[in-house]
């Protein structure tokens, strides 16, 4: 059992294993998150623009930052805080995420778009925790 599971029994730590697009015009993104026990969560129905940012962050490119990420970075630096993890979960029929900041004061921002939270996690290279109910056994491609 990893440390995140011990502290967060309803969540598993996951890594981004794939970033791509659902459509040929790159308008809708998809990412695959995989837990340590190889279960997967396929996250889709978010903008292709966010998918492109996630892809560049995963590849280590952080030169073309969207303004909102710069704003979050400045707020964190000014208040001596760090984003330390994000937790992805379902809220009704949509995906949401909580963002956890620590520093002089601990802050949790709740119920934000999961795709933006995952993009920030990729940018800062921090843990992504996925609610266990979202993770499924990996299915083999039959083609």
Description:
The protein is α+β, with helices and mostly antiparallel strands and 143 residues long. The chain has one domain: Roll (Bifunctional nuclease domain), CATH 3.10.690. Helices cover 27% and strands 41% of the residues. The protein has four helices and seven strands; from the N terminus they run αβββααβββαβ. It starts with a helix and ends in a 12-residue tail after the last strand.
Count of all domains: 1
Mean pLDDT: 90
Q: Which percent bin holds the helix content?
A: 25-40%
Classification by helices and strands:
alpha+beta
Write a brief structural summary.
The protein is 27% helix and 41% strand. By secondary structure, it is of the alpha+beta class. The protein has one domain: Bifunctional nuclease domain.
